[in-house]
Every structure is written in structure tokens, then in C-alpha cells.
Fold this sequence. Notes:
Layout: H1 2-18, H2 25-48, E1 53-57, H3 64-76, E2 78-81, H4 82-89, H5 109-128, E3 133-136, H6 142-154, E4 159-165, H7 168-177, H8 187-195, H9 202-205, E5 208-212, H10 219-228
Parallel strand pairs: 1-3, 1-4, 2-3, 4-5
Helix pairs in contact: 1-2, 3-10, 4-5, 5-6
Amino acid sequence: FYLVYRALVRAKVDGIRARQTGIDDREKTLAEAEARRYLALAHRYAQSGRPRLILTRGVSASGKTTLSGVLVEKPGAIRIRSDVERKRLAGLPPEANARAAVGQGIYDSAGSHRTYARLLELAGQVLDAGFSVIVDAAFLDASQRAPFRAMAASRNISCTIIEAGAPPALLRERIVSRARGASDADLAVLEHQLDRWQPLTADEKAHAVQVDTSLPLDRDALVARLTAA
């Protein structure tokens, strides 16, 4: 708040100076430029203190959870994981094995609908409390992302999509070799996701950060890209 206040005061001072009589055109132009600069600075300060909504997007083993973990550590945010909430809704602990055929068990359409509805509810609660939130989920369908984007718009906050990706061969290798965790995805799930993959809409791409997780992760660069998105 103090930084915003100081920047606005400086903008006001330069704005008043630009309208004073007795100064030449050069001084007037410089004062106007300074006033605009301080107004822009105040806007950036104000935005940096506001909560924001971050959605991950990617198929299984694309590195979504790793990326969201970095963002929890760096800029500071509360993370909500679909794998965990899906099992919680089913009365299961996070590490429980709920593996089933594609679209079956707790991963059927009804279970997925309940899960995304719950993620939306929790994300709204976090934002209303004044904290940024990261929703760690696949978000493969635009219909899954739309309610979250609408919620951010209704609160006049930014919604950024972090799209994680890697070559299919590497994704398959990760699925086979990774340790047990909250995710139940296997090769069949991955192939199903790859088959139905659709790119982000043009509007979504304007507010997205794409990360190739086959490359070494530069944490500071990721945070900087997210801040600029």
C-alpha cells in the first residue's frame, strides 16, 4: 500500500507541474512523461499485491505438479490438487490406489464433474480470503477451464494457464518409472489424453505460459514469465 501511495503522490506532483504556467514545453513534456510513468508504477504495485488464479494444464506425467510446487515456493500461493480432491470426495486417502480403466471408477464423467466443481469452490474460497491459488489439474477441455476463467473475471483478477508439455516418448517413460503417489494415471490413461488433446483457444494463449518440461527447469525464469503473463 505504501509503495502504491508514494507512486500516486509522485504522479500527482508531476501532473500538477505539467500544468503550471511559466515552464517551457520541454519541462512540461518531461513532467507529463514522469506522471504517466509513476501512474504505471502504481498500477504494477497494486496488481502485485492482488491474488491471482493459476491453472496448470497438461497430460499425465507432463510435470504439472512439479511446476505448481515451484510456484508454491517462489511467489507464494495455495495449491489445490485434483488428484487429492478427487480421492477425498470418494472418501479415500491421497495415496490410495484407485486405478481403473479409462473413464471408470472415480475417474468416470460424474466423478470428474464433481472434482472440478469442488476445485472451483475451493479456489473461490482461497481467492476470497485474499490469497493466490494454483489449481493443479489436467484441464484438458475448454469446458473445464471456462468456469475458472469466468470466476477470475468476476473478481477482476488475472487467470494464467501454465501448460506443461514434453515429447510423448518421455511422457511414457515417466509413467512407467515414476513412484506411486496421488496420481493413478497409467499408459492407457496417457494415450487416451494424447488422442483427445486440443490446443488452447486464441484468447487463452494470450494468458498462458508454456513450459517444455523435457528441459532443465529455471525456477526464477518461470516465476518471471508467470509475473509477466
